[in-house]
Amino acid sequence: MICCVQVLLRVKPSVNSLYLDVSGSSVEQKIYIELKNTVPCVRLLNATHQIGCQSSISGDTGVLHVLETEADLDWILSTGPHPPYMVLMEATFFTRPTMMRMKNSTRVAGVAVINSNTTAVESFSPHTSCPNQNTGVYREDYGPDLANCSSTVWNPLGNSMSYEDFTFPIFSLKDDNQTQVMRKCYEDHNMRVNGSAPQYPLCAMQLFSHMHAVTDTVTCMRRAEVCDPLSDFNVWASIRPINASAKGHKNNESVVIAAARLDGRSFFWDIGTSAEGTVSGIVTLLAAAHALYPVTQEAPPVRNIFFTFFQGETFDYIGSSRMVYDMKQDKFVINLDNVHSVLEIGQVCTTTFPLFQVINLVDNIKSVASTLNVSLDEPNTTQALPPSSFQRFLRVQPIPGVVLADHKSSFINRYYESLYDTAAYLNMTYPSDLSPEEQMEYETEASKSLTEVATLVARSLYKQAGGNDRLLINITADAKMVSLHMLLYGFLVRSNNSWFITLPSLLSPESGPPQYYIGLRQDNSVKSVTRFVQFVMANATGTVTSLNQIQCQNPNDVPGESKDLYSYHWVSGPPSANSTEGDPYCVRTSVRLAKALSPAFELPEYGSREYSTWTESRWKTIRARIFLVASPQLEVMVLLGFRCRLDEV
Ligand SMILES: *[C@@H]1O[C@H](CO)[C@@H](O)[C@H](O)[C@H]1NC(C)=O
Ligand SMILES: *[C@@H]1O[C@H](CO)[C@@H](O)[C@H](O)[C@H]1NC(C)=O
Ligand SMILES: *[C@@H]1O[C@H](CO)[C@@H](O)[C@H](O)[C@H]1NC(C)=O
Ligand SMILES: *[C@@H]1O[C@H](CO)[C@@H](O)[C@H](O)[C@H]1NC(C)=O
Ligand SMILES: *[C@@H]1O[C@H](CO)[C@@H](O)[C@H](O)[C@H]1NC(C)=O
Ligand SMILES: *[C@@H]1O[C@H](CO)[C@@H](O)[C@H](O)[C@H]1NC(C)=O
Ligand SMILES: *[C@@H]1O[C@H](CO)[C@@H](O)[C@H](O)[C@H]1NC(C)=O
Ligand SMILES: *[C@@H]1O[C@H](CO)[C@@H](O)[C@H](O)[C@H]1NC(C)=O
Ligand SMILES: *[C@@H]1O[C@H](CO)[C@@H](O)[C@H](O)[C@H]1NC(C)=O
Fold first, then answer.
1. Distance 244 CA to ligand 4 centre (A)
2. How far is CA 156 from CA 16, 263, 416, 482, 519, in A?
3. Are 609 and 134 a contacting pair, CB within 8 Å?
4. What stretches in the chain show pLDDT beneath 70?
5. Does the Cβ of 193 fall within 6 Å of ligand 3?
6. Which of 173, 262, 282, 152 is nearest to 521 (CA)?
7. I need a surface site. Which of 160, 199, 535, 536 has the fewest CB within 10 A?
8. Other residues' Cβ atoms within 10 Å of the Cβ of residue 15
9. 127 with 158: CB under 8 angstroms?
10. Is the C-beta atom of 349 inside 6 A of ligand 6?
């Protein structure tokens, strides 16, 4: 038995020799296989509830059972002789009915869901059917007949699983070799043989995701260091600079707000792919800003155009409620009386999409659309607005506005706020022989149709801001520099692409898309979508200056420059033909960050019904591992007859 360990230590960790068969019996040494790439469901709290998942403080353990058939479910929930079970399942079984049966059973110790790219689930939305139901504009004093989605259930596929409180841990696992190891462990030890129960030793799994916070936000905020408000930053910019050091009403400033949201979520902690749900709107607005910028500098429209990307909208409109609150308190660079109108971009993915709500803005957009390859449709006037940041403006003041979306009534999106709302769902597939750089340059159907939408948005904004009609034709979302397919690629497929990495020198993106879950912004995460949008926006609407690095940090010393009006970024610049290092330079931009922390935590009113009260519990350990147990007391033993793994010994 000891020799097994010695043999293992001499084995090089190459793919084929990573695992070695172990023979013999009654080995006392503990051997665990730690599982990598796991993402837990964590506990979130609001004014009145806790939702999510947790394990006990020392982790929850159970005999592993792979859920593949209805009979397996029966085994887990009633007939199997070795409860509690740790359930390993493919995503197709991760449904509300199954999860609720497990929730109501004492025989389930936890669940691990295999998140594979190839699993095609017809539809899945763990979000609610009426998102942000209580924090939008419709309530007793405003359109009570439209409250609670009474006119339209926006997300009819929503099963609210993300809002359940599970008493056991639930993890997402990447589908890779380790799931094969788990299956093998299960097959070798836990499979029923001709209907009879398997014998010890059995393969077991242990999940650690103990959460410090309990009950609700009011309770956890009273105790130090157990939960934190969800918070990050909104990103805003304007085509004419606004003095950011002067707060409150600005005479002579009338702005058309162009808005999109930044965040999304899924059932699992920081996975939130949100391709149609969020990214479609982000890239459309970024491309529109880029298309608009040159024309607005040459022929400024009468009104200013104010771009804003709101964070935390998924969680009862954190970002927009904060900006509106700050505007109302004269703590923002403009106030509500400076707002002329609002154009918000919601989910926009197919080319036929209707327009929502009100006023002559619609006529402007219609007249622009008639010149483009975009068909517009207007919903009935009695229809409510879909969940949108604009509702938070309407909640305090009547302001004209529209929400652009690809759905006339209920969402078209079949994967709203789930981990399947991905690039693949938008049919963003690339010929397999393309290199990453070629993929970035490759135009997909999604990028073509969003480019049309971006042009529509850009021209409508210019027209709405009182720009010269004859120049509209010059505003076209670009197929060149900041092309929409590059944006889509960067935001949905790979953020460490050759373009993004040149933006600010401080940005060091990781593989994969940015993070769309709002998080706590404590680690100033370089993965956060906020930073990507900030820097892409700076690129799209900024000016390259001749300031050197020191001047870039202290531009106030340079005549003509002002930190009140602009922010300054030192950017690495694109690599030149004969050098991988870029030529760095200083970019002057109006792009700024503004706190996206709910006013409930400023006031503070942790029990607020007006503002978002969502907090995230703190935790110490997130871990998952499998091992063999020798007895019903779950005594740990070596993975007998199975394979022990080199780096665990
Ligand atoms: C808190 O969340 C729960 C679960 O989604 C919901 O039922 C409840 O209404 C929310 N409370 C408030 C005050 O919004
Ligand atoms: C997983 O297994 C396959 C086939 O055995 C192998 O090609 C691949 O490199 C392995 N991946 C990792 C991460 O070990
Ligand atoms: C299962 O049952 C079949 C037929 O009854 C028998 O041939 C087979 O040997 C059994 N397998 C085991 C492992 O007992
Ligand atoms: C911006 O506003 C502040 C406060 O009103 C003022 O002191 C400053 O001079 C202004 N800056 C510019 C460039 O106008
Ligand atoms: C508008 O609403 C009416 C009454 O509910 C309905 O008959 C009509 O079909 C709706 N029109 C559209 C375009 O949806
Ligand atoms: C993706 O392609 C399928 C099949 O061609 C089509 O039905 C679907 O509408 C497309 N999705 C989008 C978002 O364009
Ligand atoms: C960035 O992307 C390349 C693929 O082009 C990959 O090889 C590399 O590991 C990635 N870097 C990081 C830090 O993720
Ligand atoms: C934006 O990025 C492109 C490509 O790297 C670069 O050529 C351009 O100068 C950048 N513009 C600004 C204002 O940073
Ligand atoms: C890069 O190449 C250009 C022209 O090919 C040349 O003028 C320049 O000096 C080169 N730069 C470096 C750092 O070698």
1. 8
2. 47, 21, 10, 36, 27
3. yes
4. 1-30, 117-119, 350-361, 373, 379-382, 479-482, 505-509, 521-526, 580, 633-649
5. yes
6. 262
7. 199
8. 7
9. yes
10. yes
**Per-residue model confidence (pLDDT) at position 270:** 87
| Tens of pLDDT, residues 345-381 | 999 875 444 454 344 567 777 777 777 767 777 766 6
CA-based angle 148:153:154, to the nearest 5? 105
d(CA 561, ligand 4 centre) in Å: 12
Mutation choice for ligand 3 from 191, 192, 193, 194, CB with most ligand atoms inside 8 A: 194
Sort 580 into a burial class: Cβ within 10 Å, 0-12 / 13-18 / 19+: exposed
Task: Give yes or no for residue 579 CB within 6 A of ligand 9.
Answer: yes
d(CA 506, CA 434): 29
405 vs 537: CA distance, rounded Å: 22
pTM of the model: 0.89
Which atom, in ligand 8's list, is nearest to the CA of 574?
A: 5
The pLDDT of residue 74: 96
Closest ligand 6 atom to residue 449 Cα is: 14
- CA nearest neighbour of 644 among 202, 8, 66: 8
Helix count and strand count (H, E) for the chain: 14, 26
Q: Identify the sign of the CA torsion 482, 484, 489, 490.
A: positive
| Measured distance CA(352)–CA(346) in Å, rounded | 14
- Determine the atom of ligand 1 nearest the C-alpha atom of 128: 5
pLDDT score for 506: 52
- Which pair of tokens denotes residue 276? 């149609």
Closest-approaching ligand to the CA atom of 423:
6
Tell the residue number behind the tokens 């389930």, with chain if given.
108
Q: From CA 84, how far away is CA 579, in angstroms rounded? A: 60
What is the Cα–Cα distance from 91 to 289, expressed in whole angstroms? 38
350 lines ligand 6 (CB under 6 A): yes
Q: Per residue in 110-132, pLDDT tens?
A: 999 998 866 678 999 999 999 99
Closest protein CA for atom 1 of ligand 8: 539
List the one residue out of 229, 200, 178, 222 whose CA is nearest residue 34: 178
Mutate to test the pocket of ligand 7, among 493, 496, 499, 507 (most ligand atoms within 8 A of CB): 496
Q: Is any ligand 6 atom within 6 A of the Cβ of residue 352?
A: no
| Whether the CB of 3 sits within 6 Å of ligand 3 | no
Q: How far apart are CA 352 and CA 371, in angstroms?
A: 15
> In this structure, which ligand is nearest to the CA of 16?
2
